[in-house]
Amino acid sequence: MNKLFISALLVILTLTSIAGCTGSNNGGGTPEQSNTAENPGTENTPTTPDDTGGEADDNTLFFYTAQNPVYEDEANFDRLIGQYIKKKFPDITLKHVHWNDGTRYEDLIAKGTIPDIVFEQVRRNTSRMVKKFKLEYDMSDLIKQYNFDISKLDPASMEVVKTASDGKIYSLPFELSDFVLAYNKDIFDKYGLDYPKDGMTYDEAYELAKKLTRQDGDITYKGLQQHPSHYMMYNQLSEPSLDPNEDKGAMDSDNWLKIVNNIRRFYEIPGNQFTTTSDFPKGQMGMSVDVLENVLRWSVENPDLNFDIASVPVFPEAPGAKYQPNLNGLFITQQSKHKELAFEVIQYLLSDEVQAERAKEAIIGPLSSDVVQQAFAQNIPQMSSKHTEALFALKSAMPAPRKPGLTFINPPVQQVFQPNIFEQSKDSATALRVVNEMINKQLAETKAAIEAGGDGTAYQ
Question: Which domains does the chain have, with CATH numbers?
Answer without folding.
Answer: 33-176+325-375 (3.40.190.10), 179-322+404-451 (3.40.190.10)
